[in-house]
Amino acid sequence: MKATAKAHTNIALIKYWGKRDESLILPMNNSLSLTLDGFYTTTTVEFRDNLKADQFYLNDKPITGPEYTRVTKFMDLIRGYAEKPSIYAVIQSINHVPTAAGFASSASGFAALAAAATRALEMDLSNQALSRITRQGSGSACRSILGGFVEWEQGEKEDGSDSYAVQVAPPDHWDIRVAAVVLSSKMKKVSSRKGMKRTVETSPFYSSWVDSIPHDLKQIKEAIHVRDFETVGRIAEANCLRMHATTLGANPPFTYWHDTTMAVMQTVKDMRDKGIPAYFTIDAGPNVKVIYLPENEAEVEKTLRTIPGVTDVRLSRSGQGVTYL
Ligand code: PMV
Questions:
Q1: What is the CATH code for 177-316?
Q2: Residues having CB within 6 Å of any atom of ligand 1
Q3: Which CATH number fits domain 2-173: 3.90.180.10, 1.10.630.10, 3.90.1150.10, 3.30.230.10?
Q4: CA 46 to ligand 1 centroid distance, Å
Q5: Are 179 and 300 in contact (CB under 8 A)?
Q6: What is the pLDDT confidence band of residue 185, given thresholds at 50, 70 and 90?
Q7: 148 touches 317 (CB < 8 A)
Q8: How far is ligand 1, taken at its centre, from the CA of residue 274, in Å?
Q9: Tens of pLDDT, residues 68-84
Q10: How far is the centre of ligand 1, averaged over its atoms, from the C-alpha of 191 (Å)?
């Protein structure tokens, strides 16, 4: 009863921001992401008869505390689906995600864990069913089950059975690249979970955000299909700015940006003025991701590295969904 799975992280071009159900992790809106080849987690799950509790090792270190609790609660959910309530596992995860670059390792982490645990329990699941389970570990993780461009359909049902990820286009449809820009300064973090909750509950801008999603999604999917980079970039950037605008309307207000974030945003705009198509997006943190085309890679990387306060730039291509090793 042992399996190993590999899952990549993903970057949202249309953001998931806000839950309609906190415990089932059901979103207020559909979101759309690109799975990233460069950044991934590999997880081995081995169920053993003699264990009284799960053991969790991350990068070979035993994990306890809230991180352990989150993982073992998720394992309980999987045990529930498998109808094997009292069989425990040794879980070994290796993260190849630059968390310093503002990627939550939870997306690749929960996708790899869900895949490895369900495979070890010999549950023969479709990607749809696997993404539904993964969603309950971490929302954005459900999109990492699939490769390329992926949409998380919010669904309408109260039990969450119609809230899962679907592939919009496979990785080989289009070679789009992403530069993850690492900033030097640390800020006190409002987690995505707390940030979206506060925004949903208090920001008067929140309803406009939700209303703007269907139009963005329709346009970006059409642009992906015809490989219209400028339209994809323009919509992704505007969608990111609108998501971040909701946080300024929250009570108390907050922002994930700091001065270097804004310097990177300005540099990306300057690149466009010089004829290099590049667009930015930002998640629940100060770091910036820049999307660009392969022919501009050298120039984009060089330009981003010259910005004061930028400590590293990590490049990635479009990646595959979950694989089993
Ligand atoms: O799934 P979480 O709790 O890591 O939330 C992700 C939220 C954003 O990264 C800001 C947007 C997204 O769709 O990934």
A1: 3.30.70.890
A2: 12, 15-17, 31, 104, 106, 138-140, 192-193, 283-284
A3: 3.30.230.10
A4: 29
A5: yes
A6: low
A7: no
A8: 32
A9: 999 999 999 999 999 99
A10: 10
